[in-house]
Design a protein that fits this description.
Length: 273
């Protein structure tokens, strides 16, 4: 999201004031002694826009398309986050705080649904469908003079409105999340097959043949538990310290440097302005 935000900030909005067909025709007839190129650039820049000196009847809208494409990418990343957290809530990894007066279901009063992420996802879909149409349509104009852009541009505010609603809903949903450590630990403790990855990697380091196939034979389609993994490791020809490290490994402890990286991500987010 931060990368897309920077790309949004880097898009220059262009403007023109070079007359009906881009050549200062009427300007030069009325005031032939003035430097209209300089006057036009000075005026457009004073509005906070970047001067586009070479146009036909309209400013081509390419910059608007660039902006909307970048905003679509921003929204798509957020939409992915919405769906991820919806899934995490559905799996029970997170619970959502109950809010007095809030309705989770029209027929089941006990339900606490991730409605904020659903609302965000729906609004992002609407916004992106409009932004995509804008970026595909606005750079195209018959002979650079038709008025199809007029009715389209009137709906830009609608797309931004849906985006703002989505951002607010996503933030509301994130604030209501509560981590269920017990549910996550239970899931990890029943997922010993994830240790097939580090075991086969160590086997390759020490020259074992076909480590992937060996792990596949005991894990694919089978329910794997602690005893299965440790029996397999105990029979491997490995240095004692390496074997001891693998024997002590659990799904809960197999996290690499995730704890360090999580702190780094948190610090990076705090530095964003």
């Amino acid at each position: 999201l931060a990368r897309q935000r920077e790309q949004l900030k880097s898009v220059s909005m262009l403007g023109k004031i070079n007359g009906a067909v881009g050549n200062y025709n009427a300007h030069m007839i009325a005031y032939p002694d003035l430097n209209w190129n300089v006057i036009g650039e000075t005026f457009v820049n004073s509005l906070g826009l970047t001067h586009n000196p070479y146009t036909t009847q309209i400013e081509p809208h390419d910059c608007i398309a660039e902006f909307f494409d970048a905003l679509c990418r921003f929204n798509t990343i957020l939409l992915d986050l919405d769906r991820d957290f919806w899934g995490y809530v559905s799996l029970g990894y997170f619970r959502t705080k109950t809010v007095a007066g809030e309705v989770g279901s029209s027929t089941m009063p006990h339900k606490v649904n991730p409605i904020d992420f659903e609302n965000s996802e729906g609004n992002l879909g609407l916004a992106n469908s409009l932004f995509t149409h804008f970026s595909q349509k606005l750079p195209i104009s018959r002979w650079q003079r038709d008025l199809t852009d007029s009715t389209v541009l009137r709906n830009v505010g609608v797309a931004f409105g849906h985006s703002v609603l989505a951002y607010k809903s996503a933030l509301k949903g994130l604030r209501k999340l509560q981590l269920d450590r017990n549910r996550i630990n239970d899931d990890l403790n029943n997922s010993w097959e994830v240790l097939a990855e580090p075991i086969q990697t160590v086997m390759r380091r020490y020259g074992h043949s076909n480590p992937y196939e060996q792990l596949k034979a005991i894990t694919r389609g089978n329910k794997i538990d602690k005893e299965t993994i440790q029996k397999f490791v105990s029979e491997l020809n490995l240095p004692a310290d390496v074997k001891s490290r693998l024997m002590s490994l659990t799904p809960l402890s197999y996290i690499g440097n995730a704890d360090v990286r999580a702190v780094q991500v948190g610090d990076a987010i705090k530095q964003l302005k």
